[in-house]
Amino acid sequence: MTSHTVGDLAASLPPSVEARALRTDIRFVEFFGLPGVGKTTTSRLLANSLRRCGPLVGDVRMASEGRTFIARQIYRIGVVAPRFLDREFRLLLTRIVCFVIESRQVSRFDAFRLVWNLIGVVAFVQHERSRRNSIIILDQGLLQGFWSVLLKSRCRKTSENWLDMLAAIGMHDMVFVYLRSETGIARDRLLTRGDQSSRLQRTSPDSDPDLWSAADRACREMAAALEQGMGTEDHIGVLAAVDVERFASPEDVAERALEAVLLACLDRHRLCDSPGQTA
Predict the structure, then answer these.
(1) pTM
(2) This protein's superkingdom (predicted)?
(3) Model confidence at 203, in pLDDT bands (50, 70, 90)?
(4) CATH of the domain at 256
(5) From CA 107, how far away is CA 101, in angstroms rounded?
(6) Which domain holds residue 250?
(7) Angle at CA 38, nearest 5°, toward 173 and 176?
């Protein structure tokens, strides 16, 4: 992959496009990948790198920056509750609930938690879209929420399709960064963490040897479906894949993610700036 500096990317903007335009097209950068691959660390490093870009990208914020788990849940309630007045939001909630129930999760608690996490992200995205222009970095977003449903699903045939729901939520202002790695790399990194936040973390390879394979397969299938779906409509979003090698440092991965995000912004501008296209 060719290396680009921020200056190179800024210089390649068409003369008719102001630097501040990068703040208006892409509003969300969402990380996606196996647990342990480095989504949270990379998202924080990317946010810092984007902030150093200054006026090229504008204001940059982490979705859950500075909040404890309890504070995040309280904030989420405050964002979700007003959305119940919106018929479109209620329809999305109904579709997500049907999707999760029909997927036959292991327990009712799992089903409730998955619905709550997904609908919380939907409400957050809708809330931020109505506010000032800024780029929001999510280490756990919509794709990761749908992946969690598919991972624990005992029935893949549902009346609702995750990609259709994602399209209904809206992808026109999103960059999805797929951190792609071998399962062994993600597993080894995950097992070194001190918390027990992931189901994969709490399951030994001996007791469920197929779980990691299923997790990796779900990631790859979702990325392929998303890439194919994006090719069917203009301004449908951006998918960027960043490979994570075993000895790659978090800074190296974040640098590749930065390049992918900035190039996605520039590609969006070139598309919108071409004749016959509108933002």
Answers:
(1) 0.85
(2) Bacteria
(3) low
(4) 3.40.50.300
(5) 10
(6) 6-273
(7) 15
